[in-house]
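Service request form, structural biology core

Requester: graduate student, group of Dr. S.
Request type: structure prediction, single chain
Budget code: on file
Notes: please return the result as structure tokens.

Sequence provided:
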Amino acid sequence: MEKDIVNIGKSVVIKGELNGSEDLTIEGHVEGTIQLRDHVLTIGPNGRIKAQVFAKSVIVLGEVTGNVTASDKVDIRDNGSVDGDIISPRVAIAEGAHFRGSVDMQRKAGAAQPQPAKPAAAQAAASQPQSTAQPAAPQRVGA
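Core staff response, request fulfilled:
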């Protein structure tokens, strides 16, 4: 079974919200929001994007101005440009690519939350008995 890939040609201009449930290659201009949460978005060499991007994977060969959020990977290829923040567990920036912004490569939030919570609970439990024992001991010694 072949995977559907949709192309937006370099003469096409889209302003607004772009949603889809298949892989997409953009060679034209898009302004607004792009949502392909379970699919691959490729910004071709002629693609010019001024949008918030949400996709499974984003491959940048052209220009993106705006924040990029990917559940799998963001790949900025040679001559590709991203001016905005990236949130993705995996990020690749090729030599010759341009990037200005911040990168957040945290893994899924559900896996990261229990780990910090356990040490904090252990520290709180350990510090409570010590805090009650320490003031009691100096009072007895001083009295």
